[in-house]
Specification:
elongated
């Protein structure tokens, strides 16, 4: 779930399993941004989690995006892995089985959310 404010000129880039939902809720409450304006609906944007930097650029245009403060939180990769496993292990019987599944998924790392050049 991502959140953006034109009034406060910021874009929060939510990287999966990095406390993004909690951060979005806190920002929504503190800045009095109605919940429905948080970016739950991704429309044409691909992937899970929140909008990536490239998604905001496509939405706002490069010049406007560059004039906003954009930020994200990243997490220690091991802690992120454990969090992901405890959140949803896809019914796999062991941590080792889940790791095999996850290694295929993890090929897209956290940087893909932050760097627009990776889309080219």
């Amino acid at each position: 779930m991502s959140i953006m404010s034109h009034k406060h000129r910021f874009c929060f880039i939510h990287i999966e399993k990095n406390a993004g939902t909690s951060i979005t809720h806190a920002l929504s409450k503190a800045l009095k941004i109605p919940h429905f304006k948080s970016w739950r609906y991704r429309g044409p944007f691909k992937g899970k989690g929140g909008l990536r930097a490239i998604d905001y650029i496509n939405l706002l245009g490069r010049e406007k995006y560059d004039s906003y403060f954009s930020f994200a939180f990243v997490r220690n990769p091991f802690d992120r892995l454990v969090s992901w496993y405890t959140y949803d292990n896809f019914g796999l019987p062991t941590f080792e089985d889940w790791l095999e599944y996850f290694f295929e998924y993890i090929k897209l790392d956290q940087m893909a959310y932050l760097v627009d050049e990776m889309e080219k």
